[in-house]
Amino acid sequence: MKRIAFPSPLITTLRVMLGALFIISGGEKLLDLKFFSLVIAEYQILPALVIPTVALFVSLCELLCGTMLLFDLFSRITASIMLAMMALFIAAMTNNLVRGLEHECGCFEFLSQWYGLKEEIGIGPILRDILFFILLLPVALLGSNRIPWKKEQG
Amino acid sequence: MPLSTKSGLPLRGTLFALLMLLLSSISPAVSPLHAAAPAALGKDESGELTLAATKALFDAHSAYFVDARSEYAFYVSHIKGAHSLSESRFDEQFADFRQKNSIETPIVVYCAEPSCGKARHVAEKLKKNGYRNVRVFTGGIIEWSHAGFPMEG
C-alpha cells in the first residue's frame, strides 16, 4: 500500500504549533490546579478522591508532551499520547453534552481570557478537539522518533 | 418661605427623610434598607429578593449567602462571605452544609443572573430538605458586582 507523503515542513509546522499550544494549555492548568480540579469535578465522571491527581497528571502530561513535540523528541510517541488524550476529552465532553450538563470545558482557559470566548462544553470545543486530533495524526504516523543529538552523531 | 414641598409633603417629613438618609450614609445598621430587610424576607411570597433587600441582609449579617453556581465559578469570584452549594453537585455538598446550618437559618441563594435558574433549583432543594427561610436573590452575582458591592475570590 502506498503511503501518503506529507512534506517535512508541514509535519514540522504542525509539531511546533501543537507543541506550543499544549505547553500553554498545560502550563496554565498547572498555575491554577484548584480551578482545573473543580472543572473536572463538574464533569461528574471521576470519584472526588482521584480528581486532584488526575488534574495534576493531565496538566503535566500536556506540558511535557507539548515540550517534547516542540523540540521533536519522540514526536510519534508523544503525538500518540496526545491523540489518546484528545479522544478522552472528546468522549467526556460528548458524554456530558448528551446528559445535558452545562459547565466550563477546562480546555484552553487562556482563549476565554484573551479573546473573551466562552469555554463551556458544547459542539464548538468538541469540533476543535476533533480538529486537533486530525492535526496530530500526521505527526503520530509520520513524525520522527529519533533523538536529535544521536542523529547528529550518526 | 413655604412650609411644605411642591408635592405637599410637610417640611417635617422631608427633614425626617433627610435625617434618615444622613444616618444611612454614616452606618448601615441604621439604614432604612436594613429595617426593611426582614420585612422583605417576610412579605415577598415568591421568595425573591431585590438587590436593595439583599444588600440590607448582607450588611446586617442576618442571612447565610449560598452560591448555586458551579464550584469553579464560586472559586473565581463570589459575594463576600458566601458559601458554595452548587446545583450540579448539591448531593455531594449538602451533607457538609447540613452540619453547619440549622433548618431555621435564613438563607439567600443566588446564581449568575435572573435567567440562570440554578438559584431557584437549589432553593427548592433546600426547602424539600426542611429549610423554611430560603429566599432567592434574582439579580445574581452580575447585578451585585455591577452595583459595586463586596466580592471576593
Offer a concise description of the structure.
The complex is a heterodimer of chains A (154) and B (153). Chain A has 154 residues and is mainly alpha-helical.
Globally, the shape of chain A reads globular
Domains of chain B, number: 2
Q: What name does the CATH topology of the largest domain in chain B carry?
A: Oxidized Rhodanese, domain 1
**Pair with the biggest interface:** A-B, 11 and 9 residues
Q: How many domains of chain A?
A: 1
Q: What series of H and E elements makes up the topology of chain B?
A: HHEHEHEEHEHEHE
Radius of gyration of chain A: 17 Å
| Quaternary status | heterodimer
Which regions of chain B are unreliable across 5 or more consecutive residues at pLDDT < 50?
A: 1-9, 19-43
According to CATH, the homologous superfamily of the largest domain in chain B is Rhodanese-like domain
Q: What average pLDDT do the residues of chain A reach?
A: 86
Number of DSSP helical runs of chain B? 7
How far do the termini of chain B sit from each other?
54 Å
Distance between the termini of chain A: 30 Å
Strand-residue fraction of chain B? Answer: 5-15%
- Quantity of strands of chain B, as a count: 7
* CATH architecture assignment name of the largest domain in chain B: 3-Layer(aba) Sandwich
Helix content of chain A: over 70%
Q: What is the ordering of alpha helices and beta strands of chain A?
A: HHHHHHH
Q: Can you count the helices of chain A?
A: 7
The Rg value of chain B, from CA coordinates, equals 18 Å
Give me some keywords for this one.
heterodimer, A: 154 residues, mainly alpha, 7 helices, globular, B: 153 residues, alpha/beta, Oxidized Rhodanese, domain 1, 2 domains, five-stranded parallel sheet, two-stranded antiparallel ribbon, 7 strands, disordered N terminus
Describe it.
The complex is a heterodimer of chains A (154) and B (153). Chain A is built from 7 helices and no strands. Chain A has helices at residues 8-31, 33-43, 51-70, 75-98, 109-115, 123-142, 148-153. In chain A, helix 1 (8-31) runs antiparallel to helix 3 (51-70), helix 1 (8-31) packs across helix 6 (123-142) and helix 4 (75-98) packs antiparallel against helix 6 (123-142). Chain A starts with 7 loop residues before the first helix and ends with a helix. The mean pLDDT of chain A is 86. Chain B has 153 residues and is an alpha/beta fold. Chain B folds into 2 domains: 1-30, no CATH class; 31-152, Oxidized Rhodanese, domain 1 (3-Layer(aba) Sandwich), CATH 3.40.250.10. Chain B is 48% helix and 13% strand. In chain B, helix 2 (32-43) packs across helix 3 (51-60). The model of chain B is unreliable at 1-9 and 19-43 (pLDDT under 50). Classes of the chains: A mainly alpha (154), B alpha/beta (153).
